[in-house]
Specification:
CATH topology of chain A: Arc Repressor Mutant, subunit A
CATH architecture of chain A: Orthogonal Bundle
Strand content of chain A: under 5%
Number of domains of chain A: 1
Oligomer: homodimer
Largest sheet of chain A: 2 strands, antiparallel
Strand order of the largest sheet of chain A: 1-2
Largest interface: A-B, 43 and 43 residues
CATH class of chain A: Mainly Alpha
Number of helices of chain A: 8
DNA sequence: AGATTAAAAGACATTTTTATCCTTTATATG
DNA sequence: CATATAAAGGATAAAAATGTCTTTTAATCT
């Protein structure tokens, strides 16, 4: 569905959303342990997310990662797009160049609506929306 | 979404569904050209599909691949499962072991319904259903 | 039986994804 | 300013996905 890297990215962002703030930054290694994401690989992902203004970071002592008020408004789709690229979720089920309502592939209408809705959900919902779910008791950390 | 290999598999099966029959078998190379799938790789995929009774095959002169009346009833999900495994489409968006209605992850309800519907469509629709779409003019071959 | 055909099977090569390690740069603090 | 800290960046490694090539097996046809 989405890549492992994207799942790592979402988890890391959620961890920051719940646990960090501008005056309580968190180190990559301290995200790595509870989420069970390999530290060095997570660092690469956070670097990429930082470059795209999905997370905020500060170097040096007292530094680390956190989410700004802006960051919290990031749509989930943006995280996935930055890590997996534009096409993974939206491309045609048969990889046809032109597949749309006028020129649909044989699978287009079959899965089309649900796929479009799926993507729409990811575009409309933000990191902050998931935080609400977490506060209602839904866990995102491995057992 | 689904792997390239799965897209190859669906395309190859559709090509056979439209063009082959038990007394008009088709060679791997003759599926390869119109679908633009690398011949040797396609052969591997067809081999796997044959092993799982998704396509039928006969060796030797006059042999090749075709779809039996049984094969045509294959649900699309089965093709994807054989190539991509069980988890790619159905696993939790955050890869949690236990993610369901009772123990939902923060993304579960957000994308849950559309994802479930998506999978359900693939489970309920068969190769034969797509053939109907193709006969209504929907193309599955690259430009 | 011998020759030919075409899928099955196995070995190997390339590319992409995932993962690790080491060096550099920015920031803070004594 | 020197030193410690932590992310950024670059180089490298391992694993998985994709792709190619060669040999083997099964079927057909003289």
């Amino acid at each position: 569905m989405i890549s492992n890297s994207s799942k790592y990215a979402v988890k890391a962002v959620l961890y920051l959303a719940v646990n960090s703030s501008e005056d309580h930054k968190i180190l990559a290694k301290d995200i790595s342990r509870p989420t069970n994401i390999p530290k060095a690989y997570l660092s690469k992902i956070l670097q990429e997310l930082s470059k795209h203004n999905i997370v905020s970071s500060v170097r040096g002592p007292g530094g680390g990662f956190y989410l700004s008020d802006e960051n919290i408004k990031t749509p989930l789709m943006k995280i996935i797009q930055v890590i997996d690229g534009d096409n993974r979720l939206t491309s045609c089920m048969l990889s046809l160049q032109e597949c749309n309502a006028e020129h649909p592939c044989p699978m287009h209408d079959l899965v089309g609506n649900t796929k479009v809705n799926f993507v729409k959900n990811l575009e409309q919902n933000t990191v902050g929306d998931l935080v609400k779910n977490i506060k209602m008791g839904k866990s995102f950390l491995p057992l």
